[in-house]
Amino acid sequence: MPEAPIRRLRWPVAASLLRKGLAMTATDDVAALEAELPLEALPLDAWHRAKGARMVGFAGYHMPIQYEGIMAEHSWTREHAGLFDVSHMGQLTFSDETGGASVDAALETLLPSDIKGLKPFRQRYSMLLDAEGGILDDLMVSRPGDGAFEGAAIYMVVNGATKYDDIGWMIEHLPDDVTMNHMADQALLALQGPEAGEAMAALIPETADLIFMQSGPFTWRGVPLWISRSGYTGEDGFEISVPGDSVALLADALCALPQVKPIGLGARDSLRLEAGLPLYGHDLSPAVSTIGADLGFAIQKRRREEGGFIGHARVMKELAEGPGSKRVGLKIEGRLPAREGAQIYAGDVLVGEVTSGGFAPSVGAPIAMGWVSLPYSALDTALEIEVRGKRIAAAVAPMPFFPHRYRRKA
To answer: Which positions fall inside the GCVT N-terminal domain (predicted)?
Structure first.
């Protein structure tokens, strides 16, 4: 069973303290310090409020949790197309003076994935690992190709709650001849659902040719966009990087289409849970490993054989011997959902903990994701979860709980 996540200091906390002339001490409550920082507004803040969004604090920003209601927004996205504002996430580019060779070599030290073999206009899922092989963040890395992002060799999207930690980690480990740029002025939208392709093509017909994990530069009404066919719901869809001063115009144009409605973070979470996609800070943390998280697909054969990346020793050890615990899906009997932190038992033995859980609208039942000791991770293993002082029956289940519907062929 994984230990409690390791808490790392976010840059905004340190910056705020420095502005006040204060120093950080080992006994300071980081969570309390972060809570005192004012929430930032994303470029679409007024747009969300005008559409009646209920706003909450998330990853240091005011974010829309829902508009009409989580259940309704979840169902709309599964049936049509939902527009999500994910501008809190970090968008980074990497460049050098050698046409990208230094960038590729440097990032293959930081990431376990095959960066050198990444072709133009393609992207890959990857992770930042610490020296012990724990997961610092999961991320998407793309090869822009000539002309995009001012000739950058790599474009990367990292999680919003960890982006300043990620930037600090990479600054510490990147060589001086690699330049990293944080595109703080760029917004990021995600258009997701079975009708997302039709909606996107109504504005930009050329996007119809994209398939899953392809990306490229496009122009709409003179606005430069970077669009990838990807997302975090298990549905077909797109992620769109757009200048912050043009994002409201694009959001209005998309939501004017009959297929599209704005969707909040609540439905995004229930959709990704049904899709079996882990959420950093919940299902993933520095305390857990890539192999135990069932993310070994992100480490291609060459990287496993050659190594050379931070955390390689643990990856190879767990490939050979197996991890001590594993991320699994859990189907739950009855209607009572199990939430994050609920303990998982096999008889009287504590074997794990729920890391994400809730009612799954498309499944029609409560589901969960959690970490359990390896001997109890086989499919159909009968377990119990302690909820509100009583045990409810559960079983290890295959993921995704709802089928992925990515567009893999033209």
So the answer is: 45-302
In a domain, 395, yes or no: yes
The verdict on whether omega for the bond into residue 194 sits within 30 degrees of 0, i.e. cis, is no
pLDDT digits (tens, 9 = 90+) for 131-181: 999 999 999 999 998 768 888 999 999 999 999 999 999 999 999 999 999
Please give the residue range of the domain that contains residue 404: 324-410
* Cβ atoms of 143 and 151 closer than 8 Å: no
239 is in an annotated binding site: yes
Bridge partners (DSSP) of residue 327 are 371
Tokens coding 21: 């002339």
CB-CB contact of 114 with 125 (8 Å): no
> SS3 for 35?
helix
Same domain, 75 and 191: yes
Domain with 388 in it: what CATH number?
A: 2.40.30.110
Count: domains in the chain? 2
Residues 265 and 336 in one domain: no
Q: Based on the fold, state whether residues 78 and 196 are members of the same structural domain.
A: yes
**Tens of pLDDT, residues 72-111:** 999 999 999 999 999 999 999 999 998 899 999 999 999 9
Residue 90 pairs with which residues in a beta bridge? 158
